[in-house]
Amino acid sequence: MNNIILCGFMGCGKSSVGRKLSKKSGREFVDMDRYIEEKTGMTVAEIFAEKGESGFREIETEACRELTDRENLIIAAGGGTLTIQENVEILRKGGRIVFLDVSYETLCERLARDTRRPLLQVENRNEKIKELLEKRLPLYKNAASVFINGNFSSTRVAENILGIL
Question: pTM for the whole thing?
Answer without folding.
Answer: 0.90
